[in-house]
Amino acid sequence: MTPAYRVLVCDLRTDTLLDVLPVTEVSVEDFIGKAGSLRATVPVPNREIADRVRPILQGGRTALWVERDRDIWWGGILWSKVPKVDERGFASYEIQAGTFDTYLEHRRLFDSLSADNVDQLDIARDLVDYAQNQLGGDIGIEYDTHLSGIKRSRSYSQHDQATIRELLDKLAGVENGFEWRVRCDRDPDTGRRRKLLELGYPHIVRGEADVVLAYPGPVLTYEHPEDATTVANVWQARGASNNNNQAAASKPLLSELLVDEQALADGWPRLDGTSDHSSVDDAATLNEHARAEAAAARRPQVIPAVTVRLDQDVTPDLIGRTVRLRIRDLLHPDGYDTRHRVVGITVTPPARDKGESATLTLEAAP
User: Fold this and answer.
1) Do the domain assignments include residue 307?
2) Is the whole-model pTM more than 0.85?
3) How does pLDDT run across 345-358, given as a tens digit for each residue?
4) I need a surface site. Which of 6, 267, 285, 358 has the fewest CB within 10 A?
5) What is the dihedral of CA 188, 193, 199, 200, to 10 degrees?
6) What top-level branch of life does the organism fall under (predicted)?
């Protein structure tokens, strides 16, 4: 039986249901570590549909929820729409939306905040609270209260006017940092749609048993791209200017120079890398950024992706789960059997000429 997809159009601040719209050419994606998106076309075959669509598709104000057989599979904010008419006279709206975490890209810190020896996950929650406690800023993001055990001190200046997302990413992206995303689901008791700030230290990990994916089998296609352009075995980060003398040349704060001597001893050529953190004026914090970035840059990035048939084991809840990928084919005649964590999913609903599928973005399991 073909699953039923539908898009719920709601008010962003109150989540009041405004309409349920027919859509075509839908694609949704969600990730750990970066924003997800929705792309779809809203056909407008007649005046009645046009009158329904026109007032409710408001970029920056409209929330979109994607349901598959009444289960929430995606949620986010409408940011872009393109009304258009093709050569046959068919009218439609092309729409693009981002996951609810994209809201935090449009919120800035206009006050100075500080935290002294506070658990890093509580600092993250305080940043989201700041955004939602401002007039008109509450979009209903909820969270739990678990802790990481890693305490940090941070000072944020109103003069930087940084976005809340930037501050969260910088807080998370240091040595012994954490992962975060806004996960969407439906409350099992009330049926209410929820936006949940998911914080994971050191990683977002969900579920206990591995999900087995095999090729040949449920896996339709796979690829293992490897990118060495980001490799570095020597790293230094630059911070804010530490020169208080306005007449002298400005000099940025520098982290310790990190050299992977073992890589050089193993025969790797020296490959240098740097990063900029113009708002970081504390040497210890800058060193934490540098160590995390240096560790991530030591080896080529390998980001496997597999396209699979959708079944009861493959849903957006797979993000954060561990899968065991088993492959036996021409490229792996002796077999490939490795555990990976799912860090992204792109879902393509069934269309006239193809069935529904999901592409999973994987990384090595922690």
Assistant:
1) yes
2) yes
3) 999 888 777 778 89
4) 267
5) 40
6) Bacteria
